[in-house]
Design goal:
Layout lengths: L3 H4 L4 H4 L3 H5 L1 E2 L6 E5 L4 E2 L4 E3 L6 H11 L3 E2 L4 E12 L3 E3 L5 E2 L8 H17 L4 E7 L8 H19 L6 E4 L3 H13 L7 E4 L4 E10 L2 E2 L3 E2 L1 H11 L9 E4 L12 H10 L3 E2 L7 H10 L2 E5 L15 E7 L6 H9 L2 E7 L1 E2 L11 E2 L3 H7 L7
Parallel strand pairs: 1-8, 4-19, 9-10, 9-12, 10-11, 15-16, 15-17, 17-18, 18-19
Antiparallel strand pairs: 2-6, 3-5, 6-7, 6-12, 13-14, 20-21
Length: 379
């Protein structure tokens, strides 16, 4: 069998009929469901938005449709116990015949699934070197992003331990990048997982005798269970709020989706009494403390602003968003936390600096930033 490594970088994936993914995707085995938990509905208000006219008609229409969904019906959270499976990539789980367990596919593309399966089949043929007895699945697509981990993967681990009483089960997380793994580990410590029960693992296939998978807790920009906020409140209740009334959250060290004149924006905001909170450089508990203590938060859309989940209800949040971003995640998070959410759509300029077309600099002047965070502008 040709190895997965030799297949990467070729046109192999594009030559495979995409229906092949459906052919080897199966539901969890009969009897794998071990528990379920009902959730209440969530009720969201239409956001305060500026400059939506800068977005294309397609994006504006899409956003409007999502924002008008005032009722988000609660979904039952389901717990599965899978036996004799292989975890690969960012949380894809296969059986020993190479079938993908459907509930473990989150935002993976067909190409990612096909490549992951090929690595699994290759590992099965060679004989799996990496094996563990048991684990709670705490990684999925987007595991290398702090925001995704905080809202999606951390609550799964916390809820599995709480509902199933798995005090001696480790949680499997992603091992890259280092900064995210460090924050993820610290967050899990707050959730009661000591170092011996946190297992950072890479993309290589790993055989697991017994695996717990939690499903229907979140769906990026689609669904956010109220249990997520309960989780975050519970695991951070012992972290005291900092005394920073107004905070500015820069994108540094990232170069995409940032203010075109970021250093000037930072100077102006500091002059108004805002304290900089460079989240990526802070330990997890300091990030929590900073957002807990703030009454005003300003920043460009990015993973660090997922920390608004730790803000007190009623906190004023001002998020500067690329005009072309089909993104409602921060709005949903703010509504779940009952924050006073403000979104400013901004024209994008300069070269593309990331995976998306809107990963460019934001064309908004320091004067305009200051004007847009004044309360009177939004009345």
């Amino acid at each position: 069998m040709e190895s997965a490594g030799s297949l990467l970088g070729t046109d192999w994936i594009t030559m495979v009929d995409k229906k092949a993914v459906e052919e080897f995707t199966i539901p969890p085995p009969a009897g794998a469901k071990v528990a379920s938990m009902p959730c209440t509905n969530s009720y969201y208000a239409y956001p305060k938005v500026k400059n939506l006219h800068l977005a294309s008609s397609h994006i504006a229409s899409l956003l409007d449709g999502l924002w008008r969904r005032s009722v988000h019906p609660g979904e039952d959270v389901t717990f599965y116990h899978l036996k004799d499976v292989i975890v690969a990539e960012e949380g894809l789980v296969f059986d020993l015949a190479g079938n993908l367990i459907s509930v473990t596919r989150t935002y993976h593309t067909d190409e990612e699934v096909l490549a992951g399966r090929q690595r699994v089949l290759d590992a099965i043929e060679r004989g799996l070197a990496n094996k563990i007895d048991k684990g709670i699945l705490g990684k999925s697509r987007g595991a290398d992003n702090y925001g995704h981990f905080l809202v999606e993967m951390l609550p799964r681990a916390w809820l599995a331990r709480k509902i199933l009483s798995l005090n001696d089960w480790p949680v499997i997380i992603f091992d890259e990048p280092t900064a995210v793994t460090r924050s993820a580990t610290a967050a899990l410590h707050c959730a009661g997982f000591s170092n011996e029960y946190v297992l950072p693992m890479g993309r290589a296939p790993v055989f697991v005798d017994d695996l717990i998978v939690v499903d229907r807790l979140t769906g990026h920009a689609v669904y956010l269970s109220p249990l997520v906020m309960e989780c975050l409140d519970t695991i951070t209740e012992t972290i005291a709020a900092a005394k920073n009334d107004s905070i500015y959250v820069p994108r540094r060290p990232s170069k995409s989706r940032d203010f075109n004149d970021e250093h000037l924006v930072a100077e102006r905001l500091q002059g108004l009494g805002f304290q900089e909170v460079e989240a990526a450089a802070l330990p997890f508990h300091e990030q929590v403390a900073a957002f807990k203590g703030a009454s005003r938060v300003v920043g460009c859309a990015g993973a660090a602003l997922t920390n608004i989940a730790f803000c007190r209800p009623g906190t004023d949040v001002f998020i500067f968003m690329p005009s072309g971003a089909a993104e409602v995640f921060f709005w949903m998070l703010a509504e779940a936390r009952n924050l006073n959410y403000h979104e400013i759509r901004c024209r994008e300029i300069g070269p593309q600096r990331g995976a998306f077309s809107w990963d460019r600099l934001l064309d908004v002047s320091p004067d305009e930033v200051v004007r847009l965070i004044e309360p009177g502008v939004w009345n």
